[in-house]
Amino acid sequence: MSQNKSFYITTTLPYVNxxxxxxxxxxxxxxxIIARYKELCGFEVFFNTGTDEHGLKLYQKALGFGEDPxxxxxxxxxxxKELKDVLGLKEDLHFIRTTDSQHKKSAQNFWELCDKxxxxxxxxxxxxxxxxxxxxxxxxxxxxxKCFLHPNLDIIFLEEENYFFxxxxxxxxxxxxxxNNPDFVIPNYRLNEIRxxxxxxxxxxxxxxxxxxxxxxxxxxxxxxxxxxxWFDALVNYISTIGWPDSMREFEKWWPxxxxxxxxxxxxxxxxxxxxxMAVGLPPxxxxxxxxxINYEGxxxxxxxxxxVSPQEVIAKYGLDALRYFIAREFNQFEDTxxxxxxxxxxxxxxxANGLGNLVSRVMKLAETRLxxxxxxxxxIFDKELASFLDKFEIQKAMNYIWMEMGDLDAxxxxxxxxxSKDREVIADxxxxxxxxxxxxxxxMPETSAKILSAIKENKMPASLFxxxxx
Length: 471
Ligand SMILES: [Zn+2]
Fold this sequence. Notes:
Bound molecules: zinc ion
CATH superfamily of the largest domain: HUPs
């Protein structure tokens, strides 16, 4: 296939120690929808996810369990690998671990090139550090002496000689790049946030740790006293996963990437990582798509609050395609979403049981009883308007468009009253419109879409797609 018909999309790589939560499920499902859409448009797609397995936090957790860090991450990684089946993700999803030997080698090559280009130096490092974030914390990030995101963790005072990355050299190159690429971050008001941050000035950041204090990382090339800082290692996964630097043909086939990430990752993905790419002379990412957070009844989800909604629970209650529907349409794509079990139930009954499920039953019941043969549906493609949303990664708007089409089809049935007229042409037309809706749903709800299209092919009313839930 020609180069312009290849498409590379990735999620971020979560730390492997926590249960996969619904926020990450959202990131994966958003990326899966776009990957499936692109494939249906004729692109060859590389879809990447994986796990971030180094750093202080994981090292401390492993020590806490009295376990070797490698054994610890090996044990926990399976819960993330399982997500492919749990969430119904594309079969050919690529899963990278930052402990893979190929990744480690790639990260070391990256370091060497950065160093050769003059962007790495050594100096004394004194800082306050949050192991929860694996980030430095400035005084204004602290509340009562603790990280604002991790009030249960102690801030660590670090003082050691470290290697530094000359981030400050990239203020102007980054600002120029954003200026020339106003769509680089979606939604674009997030680009303003990062621009403001950079205009305040960038500081070089430490990219190594003394091995005698924290050995759980990739060895710094040429210095056996240091391992790499976890972010510097993990961000390189986006190029190591497509073969950089050993298979440059593969790399060039796929690069640049579209990255899906949460709103707490803008600085790392849109600035740090882009500066790192500039430092080694590689082209920047294609686009960064930033999603919001998911809260429960106005509160952050937390184990300690007992309000965590897991993707598995939602699936157990409503089914996989209902979860994919909630995420794609009922959750805000770019802003925070407030969920509750009540809201999910209401949305399920209104839009899946009474909405989509009911519409399919109505049309297919008419078809089954009034038509002697299946309606022949010509090959289907995405509506222009729907495609224009998905080309801009606007998943929620794309879903709203499909539900609008469903509303139009409902209205048409009311208007034509085919159960009275028994007009076969009208019924066949309804079936063709339903086929278009079934096809449009393919990237979002693959199972449901297949059921609708096969019901049309067999000219049979399917079993209820979304039975009403009263509990
Ligand atoms: Zn923190």
